[in-house]
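Running co-folding for N-carbamoyl-L-aspartate.
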Amino acid sequence: MRHDHIISAKQLSRADIEEVLDHAADIAEDPAAFADRHANTLLGMLFFEPSTRTKMSFTAAMKRLGGDIVDMGSVESSSVKKGESLADTVRVVEGYADALVLRHPMEGSAKMASEFVDVPLVNAGDGAGQHPTQTLLDLYTIRENAGFDDLTIGIMGDLKYGRTVHSLAHALTNVDARQHFVSPESLQLPRSVRYDLHQEGAEVREHTGLEEVLSELDVLYVTRIQRERFPDESEYREVAGQYQIDSDTLASAKDDLTVMHPLPRVDEIAHDVDATDHAKYFQQAHNGVPVRMALLDLILGGEP
Ligand code: NCD
């Protein structure tokens, strides 16, 4: 892996992506072979926003490689409460750990923090910005189920504030996927993301209704409306509850449509979808462990 820090999906080439995914597949096949790979290695966990999957799967990944974590804990119980800057916090914690994982509400925070440290820093979500490791496990799941060849994907929900969407859309340009974005007008892709996709030559269409494209899709990636990022709660209420799917919605979909969601879901996917063969979102969440093991191994420079 030629990158010091993992900040954005934009930095990942097709070769980088394949390297992580292939390595993750090897790990998934025989995890025991990697159990002592990074004994005595410590991963510093800096989570300034809630997290279940990302934090727990990074923790599981580090431990399954033989290492351990040092965790800042909640913001409430840390020196952040005393007014410490993010730059100072990361400079301190790099002395306690061999790599850092940062989640922070401010867009651009991971990039900024990475400029203050020498150990590898991984962005685990910076506000409405990027979430590159989610993208790697999303790509792993897509490759497993639909493959990358001739791929048509629909990405639905909160495209404005959803960082998993921003990262995934960039990464998908590497595999020449046809991307259909489905959202209310007020939650369309930010102009900057749309501009980058255009520059990268992505094949992109925008829709306000899923029925316009559903039957063409190989993958449907559903996202949660990011309530916590709305400056005004009334704007959230205007769009809440729209863009839900249930098993009836999927009647006109391809038989082998893969339905994904970064989770947590609120009400976007009815529970009756869970029992269908389309539902891959729990498998997707579980893929977070081998994929993060692979990424950690590569950035920590494990012996082959
Ligand atoms: C996502 C996130 O934090 O951006 N969660 C995750 O990491 N799986 C998606 C979300 O919160 O909606």
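Result summary
Residues 53-54, 125, 131, 134, 163-164, 224, 262-263 surround N-carbamoyl-L-aspartate (CB under 6 Å).
The longest strand covers residues 42-47.
Job closed.
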